[in-house]
Design goal:
alpha/beta; five-stranded mixed sheet; two-stranded antiparallel ribbon
Amino acid sequence: MKDLLLVLLHVAVITARVCGPGGVRAVIAENLLLKQQLIVLRRARQRAPNLTLRDRLLFGFGSLFLSPERIRSVAIGVRPSTLLSFHQALVRRKYRRLFSSSPCAKKAGPKGPSEALIQAIVELKSRNPRFGCPRIARIISHTFGVEIDKNVVYRVLSKHDRRAPGGTGPSWLSFIGHTTDSLWSVDLFRCESIVLRSYWVLVVMDQFTRRLVGVGVHCGAVKSADLCRMFNAAIQGRGASRRLSTDHDPLFEAHRWRANLRILEIDEIKTVPHVPLSHPFVERLIGTMRREFLDQVLFWNARDLEQKLADFQAYYNAARSHASLEGHTPLTFASGHTLARAELDNVRWVSHCRDLVQLPVAA
């Protein structure tokens, strides 16, 4: 192997001195590549050629002396892309050898903040949760005389601050909806039937318990009158909350929609414009309805869709556990009921959502 590489290097050096960058050097490289391809094909016989390390080195070394156009014409038993990949591998190895850090050399580039500075930033943030990155940077600079940018503080906190996300207090939606049925959220989404007709679904959920209050269905484009009918159908027989959270969809800005809420004595709370994260719970509910149910079933018309969504509502409220509710379902979380310990060898399985979900129940 070493003898072959030495011969190739001597040939390349001699031809470079005699003929310069072109001419005989390219001819020798083409001949070597063609000959090696014949050797590989003769070795393969009835199966695909198995390239050894020597083959790869030879192909990669030979392709260094050829242009991409010549590689395409020379490649017979090996694809041009294979030769080019061997060439690129040799180039990467070359630069890795040239510029990789050795044990004696120092690593180039900025070292970043020291461990003591990182600890000071994290400690300052933990003791003062309301301090922002610019303020922390100013305090560090004035106290220790260390010039630090606010973006550095942000990167340090995002990597080393292990506190629970969202700060020490609840979000504004959680703060408002701290009791059952004090705040509902509502949103719209579209789905398609078997015959590809568009149906709009209005979802109403309780903010505190994550309970799916109800759904309304409409075929075709939704107007303000249709929106009011869907909302009234979704909450029929379930009372009404004191407040309702909606986004900035033009339908929720219509005069008839606001008049309907005034009749029901419901105060409307708007989310932050163009920020879906300010309306997170109902958006997550819609994603769950799509992934776990609607993407797995087909429906014919509005009545069929309403019946299937009623099955999903019963499963979602009574059987599906929620990570945000510490594993409880919305109904058990609202009632505060805790299950007694049961034996694992006495279990029966119950199907939900038309056999899409099967959950164990202690017998």
